[in-house]
Amino acid sequence: MLRLAVASRAETFERMQEPLAQRGIKAFHLRPKKRAIPVTGPDAAPMREELPDGGADVGFVYPSRLMEGGALDARLELPWVNGREAVLRSRNKAGSLARLDEAGVPVPETTMISNPVRDSTAVEAADRFSYPVVVKPNSTTRGIGVAKAGDPDSLSGVVDYLDLVHDYQATGDKAYLIQEYLPDARDYRAMVVNGTFVGAVERRLPENALAEGRWKHNVHRGAEATGVDLPDRARRLAERAAETLGIEYLGVDLLETGDSFRVNETNARPTIDEETKYEPGFYDTLAQSIRQTASNIRL
User: Fold this and answer.
1) Angle (nearest 5°) at CA 111 between 107 and 117
2) Is residue 26 situated within a structural domain?
3) How many domains does the chain have?
4) What is the pTM of this model?
5) Domain for residue 137, yes or no?
């Protein structure tokens, strides 16, 4: 049986264990954070007590904490479904949007601000948009830090808080995005595995939350994810995004306005939802991707 080291213990791990076991892949949790990690000496033989007999054959998605991932990866020497470069490429929102736009993939109009800048720079950059605008950190997930600014004064207030964060010397990414706001857009997360669309969910806030003026359709912020049957043009758009970025296992966030779709963000560490929300054969495709990765020879 193929041994799969999964660098997360969240919903994805719990949901994938049994379906993958039925397909000859044993998934086990490799804990990369909130622990002591020996990096030198005989104890550094990578966490023997956590590895199944014979070690691991392949890793499932590089750890979100890249420093811890680097230490583990140096010892384990695993091929990864989405390695470090794939995670970094997707996490850099501005870089991903630039690649997609260059390839002709429709995306929201976006400007990247690299701190430190003059106080007026963000306001001047927003002149190309109509208010309100969306302001978001360049490399966070789950909607963390995303704000909507309705006028130049509120934009300046949001920027002031970002400046405070970026003043801290250890802050690695000192960039943020100003992006056009698409009112009443429907929000989807499409999943692409090995270049093939394998399903999608619509993320929608409950009606009472919408009535209160909330607008972020992130599941971690209270939105509900419902399986949907996307039209063919949306499916192909998600596949084009994954191909353009060169990422094998990718969540593609699509915004639908009117009769058009745009790629808003991508996630190289997407959460797997319930199997019923995906296309038939989802786990067959995922298992095939894992086996192909395991067969790769690391350079």
Assistant:
1) 165
2) yes
3) 3
4) 0.89
5) yes
- 264 with 187, same domain: the answer is yes
Q: Are residues 234 and 206 in the same domain?
A: yes
pLDDT given for residue 298 in this prediction: 43
Bridge-based pairing of strands 224-227 and 196-204 is antiparallel
**95 assigned to some structural domain:** no
* CA dist., res. 56 & res. 173, Å (int): 33
Classify the C-alpha dihedral 149-151-154-156 as positive or negative.
Answer: positive
Rounded distance, CA 84 to CA 151, Å? Answer: 38
Return the SS3 of 120. Answer: helix
The whole-number pLDDT of residue 169 equals 62
**Percentage, residues of the chain above pLDDT 90:** 54
Mean pLDDT, all residues of the chain:
87
Domain co-membership, 173 together with 199:
no
The residue ranking higher by pLDDT, 268 or 117, is 268
Cα 256 to Cα 135: distance, rounded to the nearest angstrom: 19
From CA 203, how far away is CA 222, in angstroms rounded? 10
Cβ partners under 8 Å of residue 192, min gap 6: 198, 238, 239, 241, 242, 249, 250, 251, 252
Question: Strand 224-227 relative to strand 133-137: parallel, antiparallel, unpaired?
Answer: unpaired
CATH number for the domain that contains residue 11 = 3.40.50.20
Burial of 16 from C-beta contacts in 10 A (0-12 / 13-18 / 19+)? buried
Q: How many CA atoms lie within 13 A of 157 on its CB side?
A: 8
pLDDT tens digits, residue range 217-248? Answer: 666 555 677 889 999 999 999 999 999 999 99
Structural domain boundaries enclosing 230: 183-268
